[in-house]
Every structure is written in structure tokens, then in C-alpha cells.
Specification:
With 148 residues, this protein is α+β, with helices and mostly antiparallel strands. The chain has four helices and nine strands; from the N terminus they run E-H-E-H-E-E-E-E-E-H-E-E-H.
Length: 148
């Protein structure tokens, strides 16, 4: 079941490869995410000491958690990836113009998983082409809908 999507990432970036990773959360964060209180807008993946971290993802405080002092909703959360994948992604990050962005957060069995993508930023003219293509497809669907 999909808990959150990052639609803006698909518009701003050209996805080259996708990876699945586990997301390390505290108990109250897990409950908050499963209730849909997660925003991936502006989030990205960084590497520290050989580990991958999801940075700048906003998880709101769980309402029934009680008094949580000094809770930071945007702190970095560790991603569970294989060492081989981490080394591969770190090497790709050093290439010019590549970044790692989260695409979606979902549950698999009882675990919270995240789909991340190795992506390359789109140029402004690519974005305009995508908008034009989407508008023409929408108009085509409307015409087909009225003819049926």
C-alpha cells in the first residue's frame, strides 16, 4: 500500500535506475507514516560513514504519542541498503548531474519501504515538453470520451 508519493520528482528528474530500501523509523514515526503524515517534497538521499540517509523528509509528530520534547520532523533517517548498492550509488553520485531522490514510501508486509531513484535533473525545455505532452494526452482522452 502506497503511503506517500513524490510526484514532483518525476517532473523535475529523469529516472535512470530505481532501488528499494528499508526505512529506519521510531515507533511513533511509523504510526504517523502509516496514517499518511509524510511529505517527500524536497527530500533527497545523502551518505555518511558508509550509510545512506533520507534527508529533509517531513514526518509529522504522532498525535497520540504524548509529549515528545525536541522532536525534529525533518531529521535524517537511515536507509537499509546492501553495501554493494551503497558503493554503487556513492560512485554514481560523484558523476556530474546525478542525484538520488525518493519516489514513494509504501508498506511491504509490515515493513515501511522506500523507493529511491538515481536521477538526472531535467532541463527547462524538457519540462515544457512534458507539460505539452500531458496536455495533448488529456485533450485526446476528452475527445475520445465524448465520442463514445
Amino acid at each position: 500500500m502506497t503511503l506517500a508519493d513524490n510526484r514532483k520528482a518525476l517532473f523535475d528528474y529523469e529516472v535512470l535506475e530505481k532501488f528499494q530500501a528499508g526505512l529506519v523509523l521510531s515507533g511513533q514515526e511509523t504510526k504517523s507514516v502509516k496514517n499518511g503524515h509524510l511529505s517527500l517534497k524536497g527530500a533527497y538521499v545523502t551518505f555518511h560513514n558508509g550509510d545512506a540517509y533520507l534527508t529533509n523528509a517531513h514526518i509529522t509528530k504522532y498525535k497520540q504519542a504524548g509529549n515528545l520534547t525536541d522532536y525534529d520532523p525533518t531529521h535524517s533517517r537511515r536507509l537499509l541498503l546492501r553495501k554493494k548498492e551503497i558503493r554503487y550509488l556513492q560512485g554514481k553520485l560523484e558523476e556530474k548531474g546525478l542525484t538520488i531522490v525518493p519516489l514513494s514510501v509504501y508498506t511491504k508486509n509490515r515493513f515501511v519501504k522506500i523507493e529511491i531513484a538515481l536521477a538526472k535533473g531535467k532541463k527547462q525545455y524538457d519540462k515544457r515538453d512534458a507539460l505539452k505532452k500531458r496536455d495533448t494526452q488529456r485533450e485526446l482522452r476528452q475527445v475520445l470520451k465524448f465520442t463514445n
